Amino acid sequence: xxxxxxxxxxxxxxxxxxxxxxxxxxxxxxxxxxxxxxxxxxxxxxxxxxxxxxxxxxxxxxxxxxxxxxxxxxxxxxxxxxxxxxxxxxxxxxxxxxxxxxxxxxxxxxxxxxxxxxxxxxxxxxxxxxxxxxxxxxxxxxxxxxxxxxxxxxxxxxxxxxxxxxxxxxxxxxxxxxxxxxxxxxxxxxxxxxxxxxxxxxxxxxxxxxxxxxxxxxxxxxxxxxxxxxxxxxxxxxxxxxxxxxxxxxxxxxxxxxxxxxxxxxxxxxxxxxxxxxxxxxxxxxxxxxxxxxxxxxxxxxxxxxxxxxxxxxxxxxxxxxxxxxxxxxxxxxxxxxxxxxxxxxxxxxxxxxxxxxxxxxxxxxxxxxxxxxxxxxxxxxxxxxxxxxxxxxxxxxxxxxxxxxxxxxxxxxxxxxxxxxxxxxxxxxxxxxxxxxxxxxxxxxxxxxxxxxxxxxxx
Length: 460
What we know:
- It is globular and about 70 Å long.
- A hairpin with a 4-residue loop joins β5 (98-102) and β6 (107-110).
- It has 4 domains: 5-91, Uridine Diphospho-n-acetylenolpyruvylglucosamine Reductase, domain 2 (2-Layer Sandwich), CATH 3.30.43.10; 98-216, 2-Layer Sandwich (Uridine Diphospho-n-acetylenolpyruvylglucosamine Reductase, domain 3), CATH 3.30.465.10; 220-328, Alpha-Beta Plaits (2-Layer Sandwich); 335-409, Alpha-Beta Plaits (2-Layer Sandwich).
- 37% of the residues lie in helices and 21% in strands.
- The strands form 4 sheets. Strands 12, 13, 14, 15, 16, 17, 18 and 19 form an 8-stranded antiparallel beta sheet that branches.
- The chain is α+β, with helices and mostly antiparallel strands.
- It has 15 helices and 19 strands.
């Protein structure tokens, strides 16, 4: 549904003709994000270059009651940046400057359109480290990472995006600009508003600057891959590593289906006769890294590992790590539609949850490859299907319900890093309960009384 001419004229007057797109081809291009089987054409697409332009767009939208969906690179996997009917898609990818690297205070100030990889590389160039590493980090933007509170492979040791956000510049729906947070390591003055906007999925305000915490770059790293004939043995290895007071920077797993797809895709030399693969990485002081790597190898062998490969150098480490990082790409080659899901359970329940997913695949006659972050209990059951097959898509929906119900029953959550968006909002009330849902609705209404920001996401 296109916007009326008067709103388009106001947008062009504020931004310039070249920054307002309305052609059918452009609207189709921005009608979807990384979430499978979901699309909706917006009313128009606008590109913004500054917080002042964001404020101008939001002021127009508030006055005319026009919904606004903020978008970065569109890599989200829960429909968080999926357009609403007749909305303005506001794209922030041209706000792509790193504004400051403060080596004295270990911070980096950036605009939202900078990619995660660019931030990691800028930090590394001065000997510092930005740990969050979502799978899409080569193209995902930091604004989207903050809005979705993205995780990554290093989450077990280093945490997720929220742990590195020290401040935010945010434009509120009425066009008002605020900055919350600062470079202070300690600050307990008032409510922690920055934490309110982290993970808010574009429903409370538009992020226009991010102040990030950096840390010293680890001096050394060691990478190992262990294979197992049983998933339970891999899970016990993880439990034993943690019990040995080792917190690896990466502790990832692939199941049999994913291993076969990855090997067919990347030709890494993975054994195809195993049930589970563990990718283990430790980093820090060289002596500590050597000791922890030796202990992890010993623990894996004690739990019946079929083989443990220890990377001899950085090039081999990168090849081994690519087994995990290429999992989604490898699975996506198998079927026309790849639905990458995400659920998290306590670490102690992960093997049980993986077995449950296997049972669900058999029950509904579905092909599912499972991989994820075994160290923090976050798994990604990935459905290989064809969205044109209506009957199979219905079976997938039934499987989703059972998987998320089981995750909740085991003390887990319906999403560990992908967010709620459109895809999971139906599951949120059962997970959160009445009181939490009421508080979230009231917070949203207080900041966005007209409901123009990302309507229909998280909850109706």
